[in-house]
């Protein structure tokens, strides 16, 4: 190689390296400045529900911490997967986010084999925000008071015992299927168009039992219209400490929660994810926010991104296996 060629090559490498460093610094600077404009927080369910309410609390907290609006946009349908698909395909810059649930992110992928997104690979988990236990209830006319009573009764019914749910793939449905699987019994799923309709028929003794969110059922339990058997969390619920857990009542390790988490598209800069994570933690530390969530029976989690990623991976395996083995299908 001639001296002229060598000098030319050195200038090319030097210029290329400088350009690469400038680009990297420019990208880092852009991420550090985040956010410089309003962001959109997509929700895969209708306005007014629990997911929507959590999203608005989180959006308000992020706006307060980061100085920009986080606008909640409802894109309901297909167990929340319409909204999730939009976020998975969005530019990974932190301006399009998802308030996801276990139904969308770890149950739906097994129900909808043609989904265009992978909940583990296509998202950057930001924070597990909160969780809500479910409670197994029966109509008080039944001679059932414990988990073992329910298991024995299901065996006596020989696969004909009905249970209600808000619809295929919802937390009520998968909790009951996990219960049946771990107990080694068979029960018949009776899906309804929403939780309220399912509860109405259990109250009327048209269907003998169901799992549903504890806050929703507590008034009926306290009035004696329904009998609580056990809660689905590993620990007893602070709002109902006298109700045992399914795990302590016989099915060791049983856990089925309704949970809510914040997601960004995969590839979102790490410092943007960290800013969002910090914003969630501040929002969840606010006494008014905590009080409002506690009033809905929610346990504040506010995890870091790494912990949420690990949780997502384990939940995906757990519920994916259950959906396949139970043959859970969408309507």
UniProtKB/TrEMBL annotation:
Keywords: Signal
Keyword Signal annotated: yes
Similarity remark: Belongs to the UPF0065 (bug) family.
Signal peptide: 1-30
Keyword Signal among UniProt keywords: yes
InterPro entries found in the cross-reference section: BUG (IPR005064), Bug_dom1 (IPR042100), TAT_signal (IPR006311)
Official protein name in the record: Tripartite tricarboxylate transporter substrate binding protein
């Amino acid at each position: 190689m001639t001296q002229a060629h060598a000098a030319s090559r050195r200038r090319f490498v030097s210029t290329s390296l400088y350009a690469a460093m400038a680009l990297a610094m420019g990208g880092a600077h852009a991420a550090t400045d985040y956010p410089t404009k309003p962001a959109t927080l997509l929700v895969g369910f209708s306005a007014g529900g629990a997911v929507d309410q959590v999203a608005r609390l989180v959006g308000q907290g992020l706006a307060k911490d980061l100085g920009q609006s986080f606008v909640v946009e409802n894109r309901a349908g297909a167990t929340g997967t319409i909204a999730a698909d939009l976020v998975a395909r969005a530019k990974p810059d932190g301006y399009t986010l998802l308030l996801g649930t276990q139904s969308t992110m770890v149950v739906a992928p097994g129900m909808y084999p043609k989904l265009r997104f992978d909940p583990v690979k296509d998202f950057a988990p930001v924070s597990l925000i909160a969780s809500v236990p479910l409670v197994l209830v029966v109509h008080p006319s039944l001679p059932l008071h414990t988990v073992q009573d329910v298991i024995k009764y299901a065996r006596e019914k020989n696969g004909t015992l009905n249970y209600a749910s808000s619809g295929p793939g919802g937390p009520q449905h998968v909790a009951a299927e996990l219960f049946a699987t771990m107990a080694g019994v068979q029960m018949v799923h009776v899906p309804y168009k929403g939780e309220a309709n399912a509860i109405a028929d259990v109250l009327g003794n048209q269907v003998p039992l169901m799992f549903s969110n504890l806050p929703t059922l507590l008034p009926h339990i306290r009035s004696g219209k329904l009998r609580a058997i056990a809660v689905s969390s590993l620990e007893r619920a602070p709002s109902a400490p006298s109700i045992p857990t399914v795990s302590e009542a016989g099915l060791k390790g049983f856990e089925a929660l309704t949970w809510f988490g914040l997601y960004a598209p995969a590839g979102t800069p790490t410092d943007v994810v960290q800013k969002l994570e910090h914003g969630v933690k501040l929002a969840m530390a606010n006494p008014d926010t905590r009080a409002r969530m506690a009033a809905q029976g929610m346990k504040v989690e506010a995890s870091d991104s790494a912990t949420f990623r690990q949780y997502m991976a384990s939940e995906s395996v757990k519920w994916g296996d259950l959906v396949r083995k139970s043959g859970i299908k969408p309507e």
